[in-house]
Write a structure and sequence with these properties.
about 280 residues; Pantoate--beta-alanine Ligase, Chain: A,domain 2; 2 domains; about 20% strand; binds pantoate
Amino acid sequence: MKTFSTIKALREALSTVRNAGNTIGFVPTMGALHEGHLDLMRRALKENDCLVVSIFVNPIQFNNKEDLEKYPRVLEADSKMLESIGCQYLFAPDANEIYPEPDKSEYDFGLLSEVMEAAFRPGHFNGVAIVVRKLFEIVEPETAYFGEKDFQQLAVIKQLVKMLEMPVKIIPCSIVRETDGLAMSSRNVRLTSHERQLAPNIYMTLQKAIKLRNVLSPEELRRWTREQLEAIPEFNIDYVEIAEDQQLQPFQHWNDASGAILFVALFLGKVRLIDNVRIF
Ligand code: PAF
């Protein structure tokens, strides 16, 4: 695997790849890699001639200073994992390389900017959009892979690519879970052992909720899910939402949506966890 920290050197290497007629699959990450990331990468390797992974903890998408400071940074271990799955190119720049000066771009994602993560983490998606646009411009991949755990991020990135007419295909990939159901996340390592034991209750509750779709209205099901989660005192809920699967807007009657997702965001101790399941 070749590792690059400058845009110039990576661009040169990738232009050779492209000139040889090879396709590039791209997985942008913030590092602290886990099976969920590797799943995206294995798929990218299968569907492209060449895999590029970026590791960059993007400061401008954090709206919480402590979350940014505590975000795990383990480049050496990450590099080993990437080598082991056959990744060919790693791009691991520092913040000055990506932001030689502040990027003041502002994006309007319409209704997507009003709900859930956008409402609870002001500025977050603008920061994600800026870095993803920059990374796409640098790597120029044919395809890029994103996990459905960050379902709203995926919707925002699809919209960004459409708005800017970027020639990249976005591939959504299913959530990868631990054997006890907890959605894999780089933040999970920050849970204490007690919190780690409680965390699977999130997915257990979501699964039970899916089964109640035929007996409860969307509003009743939101309330039921919230009450179940609130019964665990360590869970500090940001939101429980049921939304249609395009613009992620809440709705009142099951017939109002052609697809519906149940979303949860909560703090467990100091760690913010998100998860979601498709109801239909
Ligand atoms: O999902 C992530 O890890 C980040 O939000 C991303 C897409 C790499 C942008 O920094």
